[in-house]
């Protein structure tokens, strides 16, 4: 896993299998189906090289239509775009994974995805699910495979049982939740860390923090731009979500400034181990390190 110098929207990181993964993409979590088509199409036309969705988001079909429209309008080919989707928790298990992967491809209108992820480590299921992921990868239907929301311990357990090490771990990451031990482990293991909810989730309370507002004013940028740039300078892949074309454009305008050492230290000092997706706590019984 190797990230190159930060220079523009087409920057990539090299995954452990040699695949080039864009550093910046559009996330569509909580994007209503009616909004997803235009958001995805607009992002592609603005130069976004990556789109991230999931079956659980309920918008794969609309994302697929947005991809079709966006590529046509931009005069680009399928190979110019990196597409990620994820397996829903209720679909885990070996045969179920294979069946539901094909269903995702059909909804997206694609012959392959660039990255397929296990959405959560469902206790009692994730090991056999990963075996199916290895088959999908070996069959060439996904250029890379990985996981979401795996802790260091769960990742170690998975690697011990696997023939193929996950290439990506997509986790919640922002100044309030930095998980430094996990970040170091992933870097040391050659697994690319990807940030979901990089802007701190819904409500915008993180972006209202005085530290972030001060840094944004200093650079003449928005709070969102500061957070996205922070992800990039931390070596992460990041997928900020918006369905508004003006914000989609603004979120990609992060290559004409740099956060200095003092900025980076101030943002790092905001760590609180605070999740912004509070609903996750009600699922603690469901996810775990069991096979």
From TrEMBL:
- Provide this UniProt record's keywords sorted from A to Z: NADP, Oxidoreductase
- Do the record's keywords include NADP? yes
Q: Where is this site: Lowers pKa of active site Tyr?
A: 86
Tell me the organism's taxonomic lineage.
Bacteria, Bacillati, Bacillota, Bacilli, Lactobacillales
Positions of the catalytic residues: 57
What are the binding positions for substrate in this chain? 119
Tell me which InterPro entries the record gives: AKR (IPR020471), Aldo/ket_reductase_CS (IPR018170), NAD(P)_OxRdtase_dom_sf (IPR036812), NADP_OxRdtase_dom (IPR023210)
Q: GO molecular function, one example?
A: oxidoreductase activity, acting on the CH-OH group of donors, NAD or NADP as acceptor
Alphabetical list of Pfam families matching this protein:
Aldo_ket_red (PF00248)
This protein's name: Oxidoreductase
Ranges for the NADP-dependent oxidoreductase domain? 24-270
Gene3D superfamilies referenced in this protein's UniProt entry, alphabetically: NADP-dependent oxidoreductase domain (3.20.20.100)
The Swiss-Prot or TrEMBL record describes its family as follows: Belongs to the aldo/keto reductase family.
